[in-house]
Specification:
The chain is α/β, with parallel strands linked by helices and 448 residues long. Helices cover 33% and strands 17% of the residues. The protein has helices at 46-56, 63-71, 91-98, 107-112, 139-147, 171-175, 193-205, 220-245, 263-267, 285-296, 338-348, 380-385, 394-413, 420-426; strands at 10-17, 26-33, 41-42, 74-75, 78-79, 122-128, 151-155, 164-167, 208-211, 273-283, 304-308, 327-334, 358-367, 434-435. GO terms for molecular function: 1-alkyl-2-acetylglycerophosphocholine esterase activity.
Length: 448
C-alpha cells in the first residue's frame, strides 16, 4: 500500500462521474466502512502517470518504468464497499432502490416493509487538488481523513490545470445499452473472458483524455478564470453529494461503475451527511479554489475552510476581505514568498472573521510536496534527493497535516472540548513541530 491511514476506521471508496460531456463533475469519494481492506485498489492508471510525467517535464523514456511501478501501488481502501453503519448485505439500500416512488406514503407498504433504522450522519470534506494534480495524487490525506470518520469528496478538475483527466462523449449516454464491467470485481455477470475483455476495452476507449494546458504561471486573467471554474466544480460536487443525501437521483457514468448493480453505492448516502458539518479544503491551487468557493458559495454551505500552502495569485483581490467562515492557513516551512504571504494576510483582515476564527500554522521540516503523495513513492532518502520531501518523513508530515485539519474543524464545530495537548499543537505552541506564523523568502519565480 502507498499509505496506511492512521484512523480507527477502514476506508471505502469509489469514483463518480455525473455526466457525459464536459459539464459533469468527476470525483473520488472516500468514506468510513466496516468492510475489511484486503488487496486494496490500484493506485492510478498509465494515462495519469504519463500526464504527470509530462507536467513535471520528466523524460518520456521513463514512462514505461513509472507506469509499471505505479501499477504495483495499491490504495489502502475497500473498493465499492458499503458506507459504515449500513445493514448487513446492504439490505436497506437495496430496499430503498427497489421501492416505488409512492412507497413511503402508502400505508400498506409501510406495514409490509421493515423499518429502516436511523443512520448516523457524517461530516463531509470537499477536497481540491493543486496545479498539475489529479484525484489520485492526494489519496493519502483523503484516506487519512476518511479513516477518522469523514466523507471526503475529492474533485478532479477538468479546466486544464490538472496533469491529466478525461470526459466521456455525450454520445455515450445515448448509446448506452446497460452493460457494465467492474475491472476489479471478483464476480461478474459476464462469464466469457473474451467478452469481458472486449467490454473493458470498449469502456476505456470511450474516454477523451485531457492534458495539462501549458501557460505562464503569472498570467492573472488566465489563472483567475481557472480558479473560478474550479470553485464552481467544487460547489457542484458539494451539491451532488447533498442531492444524494436528500435521496435525489444522481447518475454515475464512470467506466467500471455503471449500471443498476452499482446504484446502491449512491443510494446509501441518503440521509447520511450532516449538512451542518460540511467543510472545504485544498492544496496550493486547490487552496485558492477552496478559498474562492468558500467566499462565493451560498452562505452557510461550508462551516470551515482549510488552506494548505495556498497560492494566492489566482484569487480575485476583491474577494480577499469577504471571507466569513473560519479559515486555517496550514503552511509548509519551505514554500511561501513575501507577496504570497502579504495577500494571505489580507484575507486574515476580513471584517467577516472575528477573533478566533482564523488559525495560521507552519509545519517545520516540510516543503510544498509534503501535502501530496509524492514523497511516499520512494524511500525517504531518495524522496529527499528528488526534492519530494524535506527533513520531516513524508508519512509523519501527512499525518500531522491531517491531524491539524481535524483539530481545526473540531474546534469550530464545537462538538467536543480539545485537550491541552491538542490546543498546544493547533496554537503553534510546539516549537519543535510547528509555529503560529508564515515563513517566507523574498519574491522569486516559482512553480506551485
Amino acid at each position: 500500500f502507498v499509505y496506511q491511514p492512521s484512523g480507527a476506521h477502514n476506508v471505502g471508496a469509489f469514483d463518480l462521474l455525473t455526466e457525459c460531456g464536459r459539464s459533469g463533475v468527476l470525483a473520488r469519494i472516500y468514506y468510513p466502512t466496516e468492510t475489511q481492506v484486503e488487496n486494496g485498489h490500484r493506485y492510478t492508471e498509465p494515462e495519469y502517470v504519463h500526464g504527470l510525467l509530462d507536467f513535471l517535464h520528466w523524460s518520456r523514456w521513463l514512462r514505461g518504468f513509472f507506469a509499471w511501478a505505479a501499477s504495483r501501488l495499491r490504495l489502502c481502501c475497500a473498493w465499492h464497499a458499503p458506507l459504515i453503519g449500513a445493514d448487513d448485505n446492504n439490505d436497506w439500500v437495496k430496499l430503498e432502490q427497489s421501492k416505488p416512488a409512492d412507497a413511503e406514503t402508502s400505508p400498506s407498504n409501510q406495514e409490509q416493509q421493515p423499518q429502516k433504522q436511523q443512520k448516523q450522519r457524517l461530516p463531509m470534506i470537499i477536497f481540491s487538488h493543486g496545479l498539475g494534480g489529479q484525484r489520485h495524487v492526494y489519496s493519502a490525506i483523503c484516506l487519512d481523513l476518511a479513516s477518522h470518520g469523514f466523507i471526503v469528496a475529492s474533485v478532479e478538475h477538468r479546466d486544464g490545470s490538472g496533469s491529466c483527466s478525461f470526459f466521456l462523449p455525450e454520445a455515450v449516454s445515448a448509446s448506452y445499452d446497460g452493460d457494465s464491467v467492474d475491472a476489479e470485481a471478483t464476480t461478474t455477470t459476464v462469464t466469457d473472458k473474451v467478452e469481458l475483455k472486449r467490454l473493458r476495452k470498449q469502456q476505456e476507449e470511450q474516454r477523451v483524455w485531457l492534458h495539462y494546458e501549458k501557460h505562464v504561471l503569472s498570467d492573472y486573467p488566465y489563472r483567475n478564470k481557472q480558479v473560478r471554474h474550479r470553485a464552481a466544480e467544487a460547489i457542484q460536487l458539494t451539491d451532488t453529494m447533498l442531492r444524494l443525501h436528500k435521496g435525489q437521483a444522481v447518475s454515475n457514468w464512470m467506466p467500471g461503475c455503471r449500471g443498476k448493480q452499482f446504484d446502491w453505492l449512491l443510494v446509501q448516502f441518503k440521509d447520511r451527511i450532516d449538512t451542518n458539518r460540511i467543510h472545504i479544503m485544498g492544496h496550493s491551487f486547490g487552496a485558492a479554489t477552496a478559498l474562492t468557493a468558500a467566499i462565493t458559495a451560498p452562505e452557510g454551505l461550508y462551516q470551515t475552510c482549510s488552506l494548505h500552502d495556498v497560492w494566492m495569485h489566482p484569487v480575485d483581490p476583491e474577494l480577499y476581505r469577504k471571507l466569513k467562515v473560519p479559515v486555517l492557513f496550514l503552511n509548509d516551512e519551505h514554500f511561501h514568498w513575501e507577496t504570497n504571504v502579504a495577500r494571505a494576510r489580507e484575507v486574515l483582515e476580513s471584517p467577516g472573521l472575528s477573533k478566533g476564527m482564523s488559525t495560521v500554522l507552519t509545519i517545520r521540516g516540510t516543503n510544498h510536496a509534503a501535502q501530496s503523495d509524492s514523497g511516499l513513492y520512494a524511500a525517504f532518502w531518495l524522496s529527499k534527493r528528488m526534492g519530494l520531501t524535506h527533513a520531516l518523513e513524508p508519512r509523519e508530515a501527512l499525518q500531522l497535516s491531517s491531524r491539524v485539519t481535524q483539530l481545526f474543524i473540531a474546534r469550530h464545530e464545537g462538538r467536543r472540548r480539545l485537550t491541552e495537548d491538542e490546543n498546544e499543537l493547533l496554537n503553534g505552541d510546539r516549537p519543535d513541530v510547528c509555529f503560529p506564523e508564515f515563513a517566507s523568502v523574498p519574491d522569486e519565480p516559482r512553480h506551485t
